Amino acid sequence: MPRKHFELNSDVNKLIEKYDEINNVDFNKLVNKALRFYLVNQMNYKDVQDALNKADNEASKYIDEAMRSSMGDINRNC
Fold first, then answer.
1. Measured between alpha carbons, how far is 59 from 52 in angstroms, rounded to an integer?
2. The overall pTM is greater than 0.85
3. Does residue 73 register a pLDDT over 90?
4. In a domain, 72, yes or no
5. Count of structural domains within the chain
6. 41 — alpha (psi -120 to 50), left (phi > 0) or beta?
7. Which domain holds residue 54?
8. Looking at the domain assignment, is residue 50 inside a domain?
9. What CA dihedral angle connects 5, 13, 66 and 68, to 10 degrees?
10. Residue 3 pLDDT > 60, yes or no?
11. End-to-end CA distance of the chain
């Protein structure tokens, strides 16, 4: 898996520290889950499927759940 370097701003760092204090979560897992959630919600369904065309069943399941969740959010806001 490729590694990326980035710097957390102070607000995000504080939130991560508090979240870790409450949930005792692995930082790498948290970042991957948060980025995946954000990106799936920012992209349309076709683009997500194209990007993860060779995804395993777990990733596909997550995409379907995230898309259904997003549609629920959209329906609540209407």
1. 8
2. no
3. no
4. no
5. 1
6. alpha
7. 25-59
8. yes
9. -150
10. yes
11. 40
* Gyration radius (Cα) of the chain, Å: 15
Output the six-digit token pair for 76.
């609540």
Q: What is the pLDDT of residue 78?
A: 47
Retrieve residue 71's tokens.
Answer: 């549609």
Give me the mean pLDDT over the 4-23 stretch.
Answer: 93
In a domain, 54, yes or no: yes
For the chain, the helix, strand and coil percentages under 3-state DSSP, each to the nearest 5: 75, 0, 25
Owner of token pair 């076709």:
46
**DSSP category for residue 3:** -
Residue 70 in domain:
no
What's the mean pLDDT in 52-56?
A: 70
